[in-house]
Amino acid sequence: MKKQKSRFPLEVKDGSVIVKIYKVENKRRVSLKDHDGISMVPKFKEKAGDIEIFTPLEIARFLTYSRPELVPFLAIGAFAGLRSAEIGRLDWSEVHLAERFIEVKAAKSKTASRRLVPMSENLAKWLAPNAKPEGRVVPFENVNKQIGWLVEDTNAGLNAAAKNDNKNPEPANELPPIFKPRGAENK
Questions:
Q1: Rounded CA gap, 126 and 81, in Å?
Q2: Residue 121: is its pLDDT beyond 60?
Q3: What is the Cα–Cα distance from 141 to 147, expressed in whole angstroms?
Q4: CA angle 141-151-126, nearest 5°?
Q5: What are phi and psi of 136, to 5 degrees?
Q6: pLDDT at 185 over 60
Q7: Predicted model pTM
Q8: What is the separation, in whole angstroms, between the first and last Cα of the chain?
Q9: What integer best gives the mean pLDDT of the chain?
Q10: Of residues 101 and 170, which shows the higher confidence score?
Q11: Which of 119, 127, 114 lies closest to 100 in space, CA to CA?
Q12: Mean pLDDT of 73-93
């Protein structure tokens, strides 16, 4: 039997390539033989995890021992409740410290609607040392990498504080889910 040469010399790594090929073929009105269309591609369904809530002590530890550039990301997530993707797209010009609100523009919101998020006094105090007139609130291209190091930074800070006090530290063993990017594992 002679092996047929593929019209699509692509290595298929995900379903998006299959969808694109199928749409191109449909535009050309060419039917793929022995193919039932996109209905054969399995749908992906993400499992919903349990929502956990930080204690004030846990939040204080993460904010105290994290890298200074990461503090605005953590503080806004903890005290204002913005989604991590929204925080990642946030600009300092949209953080109004004096008026005590954060403007989430429609283009940066998951729901595609503008909203004003009130800022607590606590959040304002955590943001003030890092505030700038403009620029990205989260300066990292890859926040996931920074989040991965958060537990290590916190444990290092707790160990150093314990040495000074001659006590055994209570380790921060796991990164709380609110700060976990999808698919990230604890390190």
A1: 15
A2: yes
A3: 12
A4: 70
A5: -70, 140
A6: no
A7: 0.61
A8: 51
A9: 76
A10: 101
A11: 119
A12: 92
